[in-house]
Specification:
By secondary structure, this protein is mostly helical. It is built from two helices and no strands. Helix 1 (8-140) packs across helix 2 (147-168). The termini are far apart. Belongs to the ATPase B chain family.
Length: 169
C-alpha cells in the first residue's frame, strides 16, 4: 500500500465522494455562478450602452452649445458694428449741428459788428460835425447856426474821403 498501490476501498469511497461533490457543484453551484456571471455581463453591457448613449447625447448638446455660442458671438459682433456705425452717425450729426451753430453765431456776430460799425460811424460823424462846427465858429469868431449847411459840407467831405479810400484799397 503505497502511493502506487492504493487501498481499493478507500479509492472507491474517495471516487464516490468526489462524484457526489462534483455532481452537487455541477447541479447547484455552477448554474448559480453562470447566472450571476450572465447578470454581471448584462449589467456591464447595459452600462456601456447607457454610457455610449449619454456620451452621444453630451456630444450632441456640446455641438448645439457651440453652434449657439458661435451664433451669439456673431450677433454680438453685428451689434457692436451697428453701435459703432450709429455712434459715427451721431458724431457726424453732432459735428454738423455744431458747425451750423458756429456758422450761425459767426453770421450773427458779423451782422452785429456791421450794425455796430454803422452806428459808431454815424455817431462819430455827428460828433465830428459838432466839433467841426464849433471849431469853425471859433475860427470865424462867431457861432455857426446853419446846421443843415454844415451837415452838407461834412457829408461831402466824408464822401470824398471814402472815395479816396476805395480807390487806394
Amino acid at each position: 500500500m503505497g502511493p502506487l498501490k492504493p487501498n481499493l476501498i478507500e479509492l472507491i469511497v474517495g471516487l464516490i465522494a468526489f462524484s457526489v461533490v462534483f455532481a452537487t457543484l455541477a447541479k447547484v453551484l455552477l448554474p448559480r455562478i453562470n447566472r450571476t456571471l450572465a447578470e454581471r455581463e448584462e449589467a456591464t453591457a447595459g452600462a456601456l450602452e447607457r454610457a455610449e448613449v449619454v456620451q452621444r447625447e453630451a456630444q450632441r448638446l456640446r455641438t448645439e452649445y457651440q453652434a449657439e455660442l458661435s451664433a451669439a458671438r456673431h450677433e454680438a459682433a453685428q451689434i457692436r458694428q451697428a453701435a459703432h456705425e450709429e455712434g459715427l452717425t451721431l458724431l457726424a450729426a453732432v459735428r454738423s449741428e455744431g458747425q451750423k451753430a458756429r456758422e450761425d453765431m459767426v453770421a450773427a456776430a458779423t451782422v452785429q459788428l456791421e450794425a455796430d460799425r454803422v452806428i459808431a460811424e454815424a455817431e462819430l460823424r455827428e460828433h465830428v460835425l459838432g466839433l467841426a462846427t464849433e471849431l469853425a465858429g471859433r475860427i470865424i469868431g462867431e457861432p455857426l447856426t446853419d446846421v443843415d449847411r454844415a451837415r452838407a459840407v461834412a457829408d461831402e467831405f466824408f464822401a470824398e474821403t471814402e472815395a479816396e479810400a476805395d480807390t487806394k484799397g
